[in-house]
Design goal:
By secondary structure, this protein is an alpha/beta fold. The chain is 29% helix and 26% strand. The chain folds into two domains: 212 residues, Enolpyruvate transferase domain (UDP-n-acetylglucosamine1-carboxyvinyl-transferase, Chain); 208 residues, UDP-n-acetylglucosamine1-carboxyvinyl-transferase, Chain (Alpha-beta prism). The strands form seven sheets. A four-stranded mixed beta sheet has the order 2-17-19-18, with helices on one face. A four-stranded mixed beta sheet has the order 4-5-3-16, covered by helices on one side. It binds shikimate-3-phosphate.
Amino acid sequence: MAANQLVISPVSRFGGQLAVPGDKSISHRYVLFGALAEGTTSIVGLAPGADVASSVACMHAMGATIHRTGPGALEIRGRGRHRLAPADGDLDCGNSGTTLRLLAGVVSSHPFRSRLIGDASLGRRPMRRVIDPLSKMGATIASRDGRAPLEIDGGDLSAIDWTPPVASAQIKSAILLAGLAAHGTTIVREPLPTRDHTERAFDLFGVTHDSRPGYSAVTGGQRLIAPTGVLRVPGDPSSAAIWAAVAASHPGWWVEITGVCLNPLRLGFVQALSRMGADVRLTETAKAGGETIGTVRVGHGAPKAATIGPDMVPSLIDELPVLAASAALGGGLTVSGAEELRVKESDRISSLALGFRQLGVHMIEHPDGFEIPGGQRPRGGQVDAHLDHRLVMAFTVLALSGTGSTLITGADAVAVSYPNFHADLMHLCK
Ligand code: S3P
């Protein structure tokens, strides 16, 4: 098999227990906060993919002392809020939108120029959503027509009261991170509540804030203090979702995923799978770093046609591709209010539709979503991942149920969040 290609043959059995990699969203935040904090932050269970490595490299380039103390374990000696140093060259965010947008918030308060760059996929993604509020706060930001590279001249910032045009935890977090160094109280009012890992990390690092679903406020001038003890990153629900989506596809298939972050703002996929008729069980097992952790067990149930509307979208935006694939094999799915899918690592509506078509699966595209009839049988074939890890996962769900084998090109993209993907796939297909 050539590098960057994945060949998947259909399987008749699927099942097992596993733990998935650490949560990517939480990992980014712990790394950024650790670099901004006073003292040493110890983190274990960090997401192993390239995305979080980009955040680590950027914080290292800005003067944080970072030691790898074991697999997925880091010790970060922070520089203190407002005390990062200018990087020698560009800050390369790779494929990671979270790195670029959150970092934009961080460097906006630093009195020097930073240049944030990324790969071809990141260079296509919209950045006005962070440029506008951060400019209003006082940063000077040059871009390529609202896209990366971003050249940011940071400095003295003033607080804002901002209602982002779209519900996005990345926008909210960029503004709150800038707000930490701004004069006054910065408020973000969201059209719909989004994941609250930044706010939970504020608690861990001693930052006072006023937050409830859809509303977050932070007053500038606060110090971040490295937490005592070790921060443990729980398993990534978005990585758990791929195996859950496969397990729901056929009678007798199952999976049990341990150590998963059960943050309610991340569990839309669980609710969606239940609506689709899957047998889903959650068991809480622990608390860590302000998050609830538990086991997700999924098996096949009685497939039903399901609908996902705009209110649910922020809680399952990253999981929609694998849910779409599972629904094609099951009872079908209609999704609306998900236009954000078009500005992810790829245009996930049109690249899914194209890829599904190449595998013999019908999907009707809408500007803000899609419809997938149920009861379909993919035929296998060749399909490209468009630099998008979530597409590799969605095509894998279909490939395991194909009538022939499937060749996924560009499959290395999966390593941005799940480098061990192939090994875990083999484990579950044994
Ligand atoms: C993320 C927020 C979401 C999500 C992304 C990670 C985060 O993006 O899709 O994978 O860590 O804040 P948006 O904030 O753009 O919706």
